[in-house]
């Protein structure tokens, strides 16, 4: 099944959380001179037009990046992420939003490597075009989960893997866990970040417990809810589960999460969560 298009959801509250965490991880990795691999298993199109028919149909960005954009003061910790959004919108009007591949492209250095995979027949050529002149990048029309076997460990022995499936199928939750096990066997020191939507809390609890049962240590869960949990509302929250997070990521998210919650959830009907699934 390949019906999911992120263009309907680009810039929503889940993207804000995901890209905040992603940018902080990349910034931490670039503090050391040695090169690293950025591997994006479900890349999407790379960039999105917020005035497109898809985006305007849902208007989800209006309760996400648009609220951040309109804030009179933005915390310095968000600067690496928001500077890229500003670069796409130099006239100050919010029209475009970067996907995770474009964020990585802008934040990585000349010595780093990017590998991205996308299967959707409409998004893949757009991703290829986005990276056509980037010698650091490899764009593949392949199963993203398989890259956790074929591309790891990287030659540099440093890496960040972003796993962001559409969860169209319930088997995606199981594939995330098995993919982590496959990747970790090959590359135990890498940073892995799993994005997840909270549509069914029961499903998320099962995935978290399955990750705990792998025996892998240093697994941090970060979650932002915009509505109370419900089986009827659609996505009420989203989160990032990070394996081997940079040492300061927990403190950074503890610092920024109250501002994100205040800005993105003005009615305070949601929740935040930052806790260890398994500690070191």
TrEMBL record:
UniProt: S-adenosyl-L-methionine binding residues: 19, 42, 100, 118, 143-144, 164
What keywords are assigned to this protein? Answer: Methyltransferase, RNA-binding, rRNA processing, S-adenosyl-L-methionine, Transferase
For whether the record's keyword set contains rRNA processing, the answer is: yes
Pfam families from the xrefs?
RsmJ
Please give the catalytic activity noted in the UniProt record. Answer: adenosine(2030) in 23S rRNA + S-adenosyl-L-methionine = N(6)-methyladenosine(2030) in 23S rRNA + S-adenosyl-L-homocysteine + H(+)
- Protein name per the record: Ribosomal RNA large subunit methyltransferase J
Listed GO MF terms: 23S rRNA (adenine(2030)-N(6))-methyltransferase activity; RNA binding
Summarize the protein's role: Specifically methylates the adenine in position 2030 of 23S rRNA.
* Record has 4Fe-4S as a keyword: no
The annotated active site, in chain numbering, is: 164 (proton acceptor)
Q: Give the UniProt entry's GO cellular component terms.
A: cytosol
According to UniProt, residues marked as the site described as Interaction with substrate rRNA are 4
